[in-house]
Automatic annotation (TrEMBL):
This is Tricarballylate dehydrogenase. Residues 3-429 form the FAD-dependent oxidoreductase 2 FAD-binding domain. The keyword tRNA processing does not apply. Transmembrane segments: none annotated. Keywords: FAD, Flavoprotein, Oxidoreductase.
Amino acid sequence: MVDVLVIGGGNAALCAALMAREAGASVLLLESAPKEWRGGNSQHTRNLRCMHDAPQDVLVDAYPEEEFWQDLLKVTGGITNEHLARLVIRASSSCRDWMRKHGVNFQPPLSGALHVARTNAFFMGGGKALVNAYFRSAESLGVQIRYNAPVDRLDLKDGRFVAAYVKGERITAKACVLAAGGFESNIEWLREAWGQNERGEWPADNFLIRGTRFNKGVLLRFMMDAGADIIGDPSQSHCVAIDARAPLYDGGICTRIDCVSLGVVVNRDAKRFYDEGEDFWPKRYAIWGRLVANQPGQIGYSIIDSKAIGRFMPPVFPGTTANTLEELADKLGLDRATFMQTLNEYNAACRVGKFDHTALDDCHTEGIAPAKTHWARPIDRAPFYGYPLRPGITFTYLGLKVNDKAAVHFNGVPSDNLYVAGEMMAGNVLGKGYTAGVGMSIGTAFGRIAGTQAAQFALGQGKNTSMGASLETA
């Protein structure tokens, strides 16, 4: 029997395993994926959103707690637990030295990246390098790691963990951390969550899974059936507008279309449906997947002209190019007359002031709905470009309810040896919406907390320490 069993292989699971091992516990980590696909959605990440009161290494200026909280409050529409959210925010300010100790390196934002040099610390080599560094560190510290080890059920007794089952093998431990991700790659569950719309469509049938193919939600479903307390809306997720030509699974960040705020977006009927310039792209990019999901056929088209080129991170697939807007409509399969009416009305409504995509500028539209409130410039300089958009699900928000010690709850009572971190509890902080890098902030904070608490229980160190103390460990 090991002291701590960690189920999962992404950022949160690895943080938990490392913290538990540093505390002196023996640790076994079970990763459902084969070694070459290890790391869950964390392998597709780039950065971590960090609070800081003054310039710090790769972060410029300041990003204080209250601003971070207000950014989170805005994107979630208030559907968040403030106590747990602020815990994550504060933890984000002091985790980088610990991350570096385990081999994670940081770099300034690359040219063309989102405008987040003040708010986000970028991983050198991206999420894959972070995951590999953590696995190397875990192995060097003596953490046992098993790949191709999906857990399909647990033995629970009176709200406590007893054992886990992997392909029929029973594995016992004194304490357990659940960090096995959401259910985003379970298309049937997504169909159940989204249902059928008024047009008779099943929106989930047209979703692409931006994240890992291995997050089927098996353990989450088991915990729900076992009576664990649940939080979150099953239809809410980190849902991004990605290139419709992306693969079904594991497209990652390179499939995202980042030029939305620089042009217009039209649906299958060649009509605009939302303000493309509502706010900075890092704060609003994660609303666009859901917006496209609510359009006919779950398809949209981002339309820009040559003035936008060089102002956004180019996606992996080139856009459809045309020398006239009429030609672009034809190439995209859109009704030419409606498309031209939409673009002509938009161009005529543009009130161009001082264009500045790094600020909430004064370029806006007048007299059309929906308005474009910033960065509105006529689309009039050839060549023109079109990118087809589909909803890309990164991770789901339905999860297990926790307290500030990352404990799983049953009928309002926290378990004393079963903890949860990462996507399986992110819905406590993210009721809806997203802002760049906050998923890694949640996973890092609660992964470290869960690992610390699990080790303390397993080693019989008496009552769990206060949250502040647990975050100061290491």
